[in-house]
């Protein structure tokens, strides 16, 4: 399948008062292919959201993308003007956020918000756009779409608002959909419905889906490939099945230990002690060293490079070498 997103050496830093620099995203590589779901997982503060906002070019001061490439369908977004980027956002790449109430405009009807996107990107007439909006609302599961179109966000439940957001996101047939904790604010049964819907739309439209989550249960259910993020860096990357069966990085192992046992073979309940260090004061060596149960001398001196154990399995940890 075609590669839709190819991120290389991405660095997004925040230049704080008192001359501190927060290296929120520090040398991230990631790819997403058409029809593929790639999960970016990690605790909050690991840099997942900043990665997605960097891809969308939505980083504001004091943040800055200081290095790297973000290629969407072969075009490096980092070289585009604001105007060109505005054309791409919502058209070739769309994003769904955790809380649709903040992404939807409360003073416009659902219909207005969909037709605005269609009129802007697809140059449709009002009438065409309204019909397409009704079709989209039907597609995402509104049985009475011709009524919903004239309703306001506050008239919908949280799950229905997220469905409306999905309708807006897919309205222009994007090649890439980025979903940042899309269901965290919803209750569990609604979560599954929304994720199923995203999955179905992904397949139907052959989009690439970058799913950002802290929830390994969601990863287990929906991802094809997984990137584990810690301290602004990818610490492990592999196909989902491999990751759950044979995790390599101590951080990944820790994350998996805190999952209920249906997702793993042994029945252990563990949690990783401590918290993600702030991005302006990472430890000198491995960024996980302050929490790692296997840390050795070397781990406190320098940060390991990511190495490939296999063509599709990579890890950033001194416990492994290329011959493993
Ligand atoms: Fe732990 Fe060392 Fe591996 Fe870092 S490099 S994860 S501290 S063993
Ligand atoms: Mg986040």
TrEMBL record:
- Per the database record, which ranges form the ABC transporter domain? 5-256
Species of provenance: Filobacillus milosensis
Q: Which domain of life is it from?
A: Bacteria
Under NCBIfam families, the record lists: oligo_HPY (TIGR01727)
Keywords assigned by UniProt? ATP-binding, Cell membrane, Membrane, Nucleotide-binding, Transport
Entry protein name? ABC transporter ATP-binding protein
Q: Record's InterPro entries?
A: AAA+_ATPase, ABC_Ni/Peptide_Import, ABC_transporter-like_ATP-bd, ABC_transporter-like_CS, Oligopep_ABC_C, P-loop_NTPase
GO CC, any one term: plasma membrane
Q: What Gene Ontology terms describe what this protein does at the molecular function level?
A: ATP binding; ATP hydrolysis activity
Matching CDD domains: ABC_NikE_OppD_transporters
Compartments reported by the entry: Cell membrane
Q: Does the keyword Transcription apply?
A: no
Primary location? membrane
What family name appears in the similarity comment?
Answer: Belongs to the ABC transporter superfamily.
Q: Which GO terms describe its biological process?
A: peptide transport
Membrane topology, from the record? Peripheral membrane protein
């Amino acid at each position: 399948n075609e590669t839709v997103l190819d991120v290389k050496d991405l660095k997004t830093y925040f230049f704080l008062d008192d001359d501190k620099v927060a290296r929120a995203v520090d040398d991230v590589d990631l790819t997403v292919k058409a029809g593929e779901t790639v999960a970016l997982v990690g605790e909050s503060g690991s840099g997942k959201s900043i990665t997605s906002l960097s891809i969308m070019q939505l980083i504001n001061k004091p943040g800055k993308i200081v290095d790297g490439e973000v290629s969407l369908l072969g075009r490096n977004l980092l070289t585009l003007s604001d105007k060109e980027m505005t054309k791409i956002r919502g058209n070739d790449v769309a994003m769904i956020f955790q809380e649709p109430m903040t992404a939807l405009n409360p003073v416009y009807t659902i219909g207005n918000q969909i037709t605005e996107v269609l009129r802007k990107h697809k140059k449709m007439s009002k009438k065409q756009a309204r019909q397409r909006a009704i079709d989209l609302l039907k597609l995402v599961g509104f049985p009475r779409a011709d009524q919903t179109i004239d309703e306001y966000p506050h008239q919908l439940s949280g799950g229905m608002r997220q469905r409306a957001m999905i309708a807006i996101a897919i309205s222009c047939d994007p090649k890439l959909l980025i979903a940042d904790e899309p269901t965290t604010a919803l209750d569990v049964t609604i979560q599954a419905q929304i994720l199923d819907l995203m999955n179905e739309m992904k397949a139907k439209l052959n989009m690439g889906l970058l799913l950002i989550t802290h929830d390994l249960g969601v990863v287990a259910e929906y991802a094809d490939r997984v990137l584990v993020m810690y301290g602004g860096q990818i610490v492990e990357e592999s196909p989902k099945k491999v990751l759950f069966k044979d995790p390599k990085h101590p951080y990944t192992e820790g994350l998996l230990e805190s999952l209920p046992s249906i997702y793993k073979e042994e029945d252990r309940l563990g949690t990783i002690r401590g918290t993600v260090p702030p991005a302006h004061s990472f430890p000198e060596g491995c960024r996980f060293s302050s929490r790692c149960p296997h840390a050795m001398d070397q781990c406190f001196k320098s940060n390991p490079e990511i190495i490939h154990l296999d063509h599709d399995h990579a890890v950033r940890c001194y416990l492994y070498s290329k011959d493993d």
